Structures are given as C-alpha cells and as structure tokens.
C-alpha cells in the first residue's frame, strides 16, 4: 500500500460523505422545498450531476494518465491503476466483469448498464430524501397544501 492509495480512497469514499453531512447539518431545511412538478424534475436532474461529473472526470483523467504513461493515480484499485474501478476502463480486459461471468457484453455496454444502475440508485436516494422533506415542509406550511400543482 502506497500513500496515493490512501489519498485516493479518502477522496473517493470519505470526502463526498463528509461534504454531505456538512450540507445536511448546515443547509437542510433552510430553504423552501419545491412543490411544482417542473421544479421537482429540475431538482432531480441536479441530483444526478455528481454522477455525470464523477464518470466524466475519472474517465478523462484515467485516459489522460494512461495515454501519457503517468504514475497510476489509483495504484492497485483497478487493473491498470489509472481508474478508480475496472469497469470504467473501456479497454482493459480485467475490467469486463460480464465476460468473466460468461456474458457476451463488451466493456462499453457493461459500463452503460452499471451507470444506469447508479442513476437508478441516485434517483431512489432522491425520492427517499425529497418526499419526507416535502411532507415535513407542508406540515409546517399547511396553507401551501391547497396550492400545490401535484
């Protein structure tokens, strides 16, 4: 284990959770919950931005590190060390988990399936967080119940 593995693990699995906790403590319920359908869809879309940013950043940085033959930023976290997870590497055979299971799926299709699963999971998190917050907001503001568009 080398220093950059600890750094990468902290960056991937510690920092986002810490920021989330700080957000919940400092800002949650400090603003109005959107009630109109259009605003809710927009908020849901914003909740997916971190997933798109994550995939874009780590695919591009991994490709850059791999092409320029820079040190493996993620060490032993993936087959090449240039990506945080093997399934993000579109060109490495070790990254194709589906092939290891005997499924005739290429790396790009596998990444799409995994990514759609992540989008579904994030959407579930959104529903779990939004609707109780909406219920609590409407409970505190009963006059708004009659004017909702939903």
Offer a concise description of the structure.
The chain is an all-alpha fold and 150 residues long. Helix content is 61%, strand content 0%. Helix 3 packs antiparallel against helix 5 (107-140).
Structure description:
- This protein is mostly helical and 150 residues long.
- 61% of the residues lie in helices and 0% in strands.
- It has helices spanning 3-13, 15-26, 37-67, 97-100, 107-140.
- Helix 3 packs antiparallel against helix 5 (107-140).
- The longest helix has 34 residues, at 107-140.
- The radius of gyration is 20 Å and the shape is elongated.
- The termini are far apart.
Keywords:
150 residues, mainly alpha, 5 helices, 61% helix, elongated
Q: In what range is the share of β-strand residues?
A: under 5%
Q: Mind summarizing the main beta sheet?
A: none
Order of helices and strands: HHHHH
Total strands: 0
- Specify the number of helices: 5
Write the layout of secondary structure elements.
Layout: H1 3-13, H2 15-26, H3 37-67, H4 97-100, H5 107-140
């Amino acid at each position: 284990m080398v220093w950059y593995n600890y750094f990468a693990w902290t960056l991937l699995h510690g920092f986002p959770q810490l920021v989330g906790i700080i957000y919940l403590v400092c800002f949650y319920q400090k603003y109005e919950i959107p009630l109109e359908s259009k605003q809710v869809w927009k908020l849901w879309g914003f909740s997916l931005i971190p997933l798109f940013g994550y995939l874009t950043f780590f695919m591009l940085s991994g490709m850059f590190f791999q092409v320029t033959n820079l040190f493996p930023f993620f060490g032993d976290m993936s087959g090449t060390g240039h990506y945080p997870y093997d399934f993000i590497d579109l060109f490495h055979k070790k990254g194709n988990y589906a092939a290891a299971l005997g499924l005739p799926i290429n790396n790009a299709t596998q990444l799409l399936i995994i990514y759609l699963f992540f989008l579904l999971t994030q959407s579930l998190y959104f529903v779990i967080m939004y609707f109780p917050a909406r219920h609590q907001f409407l409970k505190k503001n009963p006059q708004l119940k009659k004017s909702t568009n939903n």
